Amino acid sequence: MSLLNGELQFVTEAHYFEDENLKQMSLENNWDEDDLKDNEKGESSIYFSECNDEFQQHADYEKHLSGEKPFVCSSCNKQFTEIWNLKRHLKTHTNEKMFDCPVCYKQFNEASNLKRHMKTHSGSKPHTCHECDKQFGEAGNLKKHMIIHSKVKLYECSECRKQFTEAGNLKRHMRTHTGKKPYACCVCGKQFTEAGNLKRHMRIHTGERPYTCLTCHKPFTDIGSLKRHMTIHTGERPYTCYECEKHFTAVDNLKRHMRTHTGEKLYTCAMCHRQFRELSNLRRHTERLHW
């Protein structure tokens, strides 16, 4: 028999009484044992809500309907519906990392994160985009990638009207307008707009270099540096100047080169106001004439 106006179904009596939490709830809510005898196949108890989510316990179902988040982080006041979600979140404050990669010894606070990381060593990318054949190690990354092909941009910046495919990208973009840098280095105090930038910066202090070239075994602090390095071995120069068709291994090198065509000088001496195209040229000028 159905309960809660047809939104909730108990599938089996036997499994129901094996769960002490549910048994207690039946006593508190005066559920009739006869209501639990719809199914004689011994299947697991499953509850369905109007949005087709599935729940193994009635308490989880009720929390889902109410939107209640009773578990609060004492450090940042973030709220959670489940205690185990709060426990996982707390590791972001304690920096507790119990799971070690056996290849590069990088540490993780969750087994699932280690499992994802291991794919960077194995090269396993089982999820393929049917539009462009690009491959991904995670189904979630493929799902986000597919938005590129749909060209749907639901999130718009209220300041400049730039549109984004994901809410997270809009949130990060907004910091270019507000100047907000919520992520601070605990060693030197340098602030960053994104957590990933802080994470990469921290490797300057820790000396960690988790990305290694498979050809010459040189280690790097970030994947971008490794990719740029790999062009030394492959000879690839994917960035081309549209003015003179000169090729470059890195986009930053192309940007610097473009200034030779545009005449743009971004760097100005604070002492004599002379301008330079390259930061290195400004530094040499300052050391030679003003120090």
Describe this structure as you would to a colleague:
The protein is globular and about 75 Å long. It has helices at 13-18, 20-29, 58-66, 83-94, 111-122, 139-150, 167-178, 195-206, 223-234, 251-262, 279-289, and strands spanning 2-3, 8-9, 47-48, 54-55, 71-72, 79-80, 99-100, 107-108, 127-128, 135-136, 155-156, 163-164, 183-184, 191-192, 211-212, 219-220, 239-240, 247-248, 267-268, 275-276. A hairpin with a 5-residue loop joins strand 3 (47-48) and strand 4. Among the domains are: 2-66, no CATH class; 99-150, Double Stranded RNA Binding Domain; 237-291, Double Stranded RNA Binding Domain. It is of the alpha+beta class and 291 residues long. The model is unreliable at 1-22 and 31-49 (pLDDT under 50).
Quick one: overall form? globular
Assembly type of the chains comes to single chain
Averaged pLDDT, please?
76
Residue share in helix: 40-55%
At a glance:
With 291 residues, the protein is α+β, with helices and mostly antiparallel strands.
Keywords:
about 290 residues; alpha+beta; Double Stranded RNA Binding Domain; two-stranded antiparallel sheet; 11 helices; globular; disordered N terminus
Reconstruct the topology from this structure.
Layout: E1 2-3, E2 8-9, H1 13-18, H2 20-29, E3 47-48, E4 54-55, H3 58-66, E5 71-72, E6 79-80, H4 83-94, E7 99-100, E8 107-108, H5 111-122, E9 127-128, E10 135-136, H6 139-150, E11 155-156, E12 163-164, H7 167-178, E13 183-184, E14 191-192, H8 195-206, E15 211-212, E16 219-220, H9 223-234, E17 239-240, E18 247-248, H10 251-262, E19 267-268, E20 275-276, H11 279-289
Antiparallel strand pairs: 1-2, 3-4, 5-6, 7-8, 9-10, 11-12, 13-14, 15-16, 17-18, 19-20
